Amino acid sequence: MIIVHLRTFGLEKIGVGHCTGPKAFLALSNAFKEKVFLNTVGNVIEFN
């Protein structure tokens, strides 16, 4: 499953777009909690 594979990366944030779809967004949100966000037009993402 993709979620199991994603866990191996140690991601700090996961930004998803509209094309991810509601089912996948929900699955990712359940698995990664506050790390998942909806990345929309106008969002500014800063990398440290």
Q: What's the SSE blueprint?
A:
Blueprint: H1 2-7, E1 14-16, H2 22-32, E2 36-38
Parallel strand pairs: 1-2
Give the total of domains. 1
Global structural class: alpha+beta
Give the integer mean of the pLDDT values. 94
Q: What general outline do the C-alpha atoms trace? A: globular
Detailed description of the structure:
The chain has 48 residues and is of the alpha+beta class. The chain has one domain. It is 35% helix and 12% strand. The protein is built from two helices and two strands; from the N terminus they run αβαβ. Strands 1-2 form a two-stranded parallel sheet. Strand 1, helix 2 and strand 2 (36-38) form a beta-alpha-beta unit. The longest helix has 11 residues, at 22-32.
Q: How is this structure best summarized?
A:
With 48 residues, the protein is α+β, with helices and mostly antiparallel strands.
Notable characteristics:
2 helices; two-stranded parallel ribbon; single chain; alpha+beta; 48 residues; globular
